[in-house]
Amino acid sequence: MRTKSGDEIYEAGQAFYWAPGHAPEALEDCEYIDFSPTKEFNEVIDHVKAQMG
Questions:
Q1: Which DSSP letter does residue 6 get?
Q2: Angle in degrees, CA 49, 22, 9, rounded to 5
Q3: How far apart are CA 39 and CA 31, in angstroms?
Q4: What pTM, to 2 d.p., does this model score?
Q5: pLDDT of residue 46
């Protein structure tokens, strides 16, 4: 994960928190479960959709 404070690499089984401003980069195939507060998550998705046109 590219973050404002530098790159982070996560291994299987690790928990993590991604603060605003992160940019994901998968180095290999992976699966993860993402838990996000609904209101804030919807704001992010709305922003992404608006940028896509």
A1: E
A2: 130
A3: 24
A4: 0.53
A5: 94
